Every structure is written in C-alpha cells, then in structure tokens.
C-alpha cells in the first residue's frame, strides 16, 4: 500500500507540473480505537445539525499513536487520497494539498480550503492553526513534524469506504450524518445496478479497468477506485484473471499487452492518464491488433474516464452513481 501511495503521489505531482489514481480500497481495516468523554450523537437526519460534542477524547490510530483530540474538530488539515469523504460530511477542512485533488469531481469546493502543498509545508500548516491534522502518510518522520503543530493521526485511506465513513463520523462528532450517508449510498448503488440490468446489461457480464503509467506500464485495476463500484455484489463481474488479483488482496497489478486478453472483460473501462507519456502509450494500445481483436472493442463496449475522477472517496462514489449509467448508455 505504501508503494501505491508513492506512485499516486508521483502522478499527482506530474498533473500539477503538466497542467491520482484513486485510491486503493483495502479489504481489511484497523482504523484505531477511540475512548473518552464524547457524548452520544444526535439521532437527527443528515440534513439537520447534530449536537456537537465538547471537550477532548483519547484516540489511538491504526498505527498505534495515542492522541488527545478535540471531541468535535473545528479546523482540520487533511492530507490523503480521500478528501471527498470529509467533504460529504461537511467537515471543517481548512487545508489540504491541492495537487492531490486537482481534476477531481469536487475540485470546485477547494476555493475556501488553503493549499498546504505536498509534502505539507510546515510553515503554512502552522499559520493555519489547525486543531487536528489527519494524514494518510505512514512516514514516522513526517508524523513527528506534524504532531508538533497540532494533534496528528494517521488515517487508513485504503480502508473500505464504509469503515472510513464510520470512523470519520466518530472523529468529527457526526456519527448520525455518516450513518445516514452510508445508508443512502448503499440504497443508491443497489438501485443503480437494478436499473442497469433491467435495461442495458446482461447477468454475468464481466468488466475490466485498465490504465497506463509512465514508462509504458499497463495496469489492471482490482480493489481500487472505479473497480470497487463495478464489482459490487449486484454489479458487473471480474474476469477470472482479475479475480485472482482480488483474491491476492491487491488494488492493481501490472500486466503485459500480450496478456491483455486474459484480463479483458465484456466491458472495458480505460482511465485516461494525466502524464503525456502514458497518454501516448494508451494511443499505441488502441492501434494494436491485440486491442482491436478484443470482443469488448468489437462490440463497442469500451468507455473512458479521467483517472482523477475515478477515486475511492465518498464524493466520487456519489458522482459515479450518476455518471456510470450515462457512460453505459448505447
């Protein structure tokens, strides 16, 4: 996972210099435990205001750091692949690395959020006076520096979506809002697949997601981003070759063009790369006889999506519930 974070960081920096692979959802989670004097959250609906807990509480993050946190943070710096999780919960984020989220579906919501740079500019972070810093990095050196500015916790951005949202609801003092979001999302994705199979799709159809990285490296996506939506229990199915990657609990795997046919499904989704070299590799793939002979290509069942709009965060997941049906329309 840490290797994927470095790869994703390199991609985001390339996008910044030239203008995210979304993120890899893990199959296991250990998000930490919290205890303290946090009052029980309100049972109001998500469109009402919950009573904010007061005081502080002890929290142990998934890497074992014990921190004293505000029961309801008011000034959060967030550095990770899943800022959209906090956005749908109306979290008071005051700073984030803009390079991580430029080109995302929620980019227009960054205007009131300061750019803290990547790696985080410590002077800028100190200037913002956060009461909590949440980081996806697992580098202890970075953690030590950030924790001198404000209570800092390591957050598993690759944990399953529902686990992340539940934990954030606890950390932010918005448990009911998080629970309501989870319920609404699950109902929405169930309804989406029901409608798609009633109109466009056939039972048992398979799907594949591919993208290129610089260095002419072709990857098949498994437990990450768009694939997590496609491989919903009521959705499209992975091919046997992709199922092996999923069984190995991998978010992605590099493959050769010679093995593409083994991974290609009835529906193929191409994530448009940011890097020009990767874009060129994609164009060369489209010209190849291997590509042209794939059943999905012959049946015009190929779809494209910007890689920066294929993340694993909650805001992107909401967007995909509307975008995916549009993509699959003939």
Automatic annotation (TrEMBL):
Belongs to the bacterial solute-binding protein 8 family. Residues 38-59 have a biased composition (Polar residues). This is Fe/B12 periplasmic-binding domain-containing protein. Its main location: other. It comes from Paenibacillus plantiphilus. It comes from the Bacteria. Keywords: Signal, Transport. Residues 1-22 form the signal peptide. Residues 29-60 are annotated as: Disordered. Residues 75-330 form the Fe/B12 periplasmic-binding domain. It is found in: Cell envelope. PANTHER family: IRON III DICITRATE-BINDING PERIPLASMIC PROTEIN, IRON(3+)-HYDROXAMATE-BINDING PROTEIN FHUD.
């Amino acid at each position: 996972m840490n290797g994927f974070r470095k790869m994703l960081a390199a991609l985001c920096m390339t996008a910044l210099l030239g203008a995210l692979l979304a993120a890899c959802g893990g199959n296991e989670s250990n998000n930490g435990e919290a205890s303290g004097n946090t009052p029980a959250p309100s049972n109001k609906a998500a469109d009402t205001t919950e009573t904010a807990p007061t005081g502080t509480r002890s929290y142990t993050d998934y890497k074992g750091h014990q921190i004293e946190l505000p029961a309801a943070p008011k000034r959060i710096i967030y550095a990770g692949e899943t800022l959209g999780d906090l956005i749908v919960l109306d979290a008071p984020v005051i700073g984030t690395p803009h390079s991580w989220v430029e080109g995302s579906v929620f980019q227009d919501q960054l205007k009131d959020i300061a750019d803290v740079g990547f790696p985080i500019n410590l002077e800028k972070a100190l200037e913002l006076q956060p009461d909590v810093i949440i980081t996806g990095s697992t580098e202890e050196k970075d953690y030590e520096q950030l924790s001198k500015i404000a209570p800092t916790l390591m957050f598993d951005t690759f944990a399953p979506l529902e686990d992340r949202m539940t934990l954030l609801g606890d950390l932010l003092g918005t448990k009911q809002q998080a629970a309501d979001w989870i319920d609404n999302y699950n109902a929405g994705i169930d309804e989406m697949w029901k409608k798609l199979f009633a109109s466009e799709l056939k039972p048992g159809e398979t799907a594949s997601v591919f993208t290129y990285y610089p260095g002419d490296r072709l990857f098949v996506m498994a437990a990450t981003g768009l694939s997590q939506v496609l491989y919903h229990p009521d959705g499209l199915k992975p091919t046997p070759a992709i199922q092996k990657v999923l069984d190995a609990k991998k978010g992605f795997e590099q493959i050769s063009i010679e093995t593409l046919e083994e991974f290609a499904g009835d529906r193929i989704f191409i994530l448009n790369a940011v890097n020009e070299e990767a874009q060129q590799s994609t164009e060369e793939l489209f010209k190849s006889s291997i590509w042209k002979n794939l059943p999905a290509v012959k049946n015009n069942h190929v779809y494209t999506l910007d890689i920066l709009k294929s993340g694993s965060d909650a805001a992107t997941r909401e967007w995909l519930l509307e975008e995916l049906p549009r993509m699959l329309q003939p």
